[in-house]
C-alpha cells in the first residue's frame, strides 16, 4: 500500500470509531480530502484508493488540476475565502462551495452558475470565534443570509461550515461544533449538512453531527505553504 492509501485507511478507521462512539452510522460522515497545494498525482492516487470528493482553497491551482484530472469523475469543493472576481470560475467549475459568507458573493454565484448545470451546493461559513483573521458571517448575520441564499434559483443551500479557534481540549472542540449544529437547527430551513472538523479534531466534530470532515494533513502529510494562490 502507498502512504496515501495507508493514511486514507487510518482516517476512515478514525471516522468509523468516532461515529460508533456516539451511535452514528459512519456512512453519514463524508470524507472531504483537502488537496490544496497537493499535486494532481496525489489526487489521482487518492481517487484510486476510493476517494471522490476533493477540497481546494486556491482557485487557479484548482482549475489547473481539474484540467489535468478531467478523465476522473471527481467532485470538487471550494473551501477557501471567495473574492468577487473569482465567483464566475467557481460557479462554473465546482460542485460545492463551503465558504459563502456574504450576500454579494452568494448572489454572484447564483447569477453566474451555468443553467446547464444543477444548482450549486453551498454552505454558509460562520465565524464562531469572532477572529478577525477568519472569514465567515457572524451568528447574528446568519439568519437573514440563510433566508436570502435559500431563495436563490441556482444555489442549493445545504448547511453550515466553520473553522473554530484551534484548541487541543476535546470539550472546547465539541462546544464550538455544538454551537454550529444549534445555529443550523435554529434556522427554519431544511438543511442536511455540517461541514466541520479537520485532522486534529474530527472526533469532536463527528460527535456533534458533522456530515463532512475536511481532512488534509492526515491524508497527504504536511502542506507546502509556499505554493502560490
TrEMBL record:
Keywords tagged on the record: Pyridoxal phosphate
Domain Alanine racemase N-terminal span(s) in chain numbering: 10-223
Record-linked Gene3D superfamilies: Alanine racemase (3.20.20.10)
CDD domains the UniProt entry points to: PLPDE_III_Yggs_like
Modification N6-(pyridoxal phosphate)lysine, positions: 36
SUPFAM superfamilies assigned to the protein according to its UniProt record, in alphabetical order: PLP-binding barrel
Role summary: Pyridoxal 5'-phosphate (PLP)-binding protein, which is involved in PLP homeostasis.
Family stated for the protein in its record: Belongs to the pyridoxal phosphate-binding protein YggS/PROSC family.
HAMAP family for the chain: PLP_homeostasis
Full protein name: Pyridoxal phosphate homeostasis protein
Provenance organism: Stutzerimonas frequens
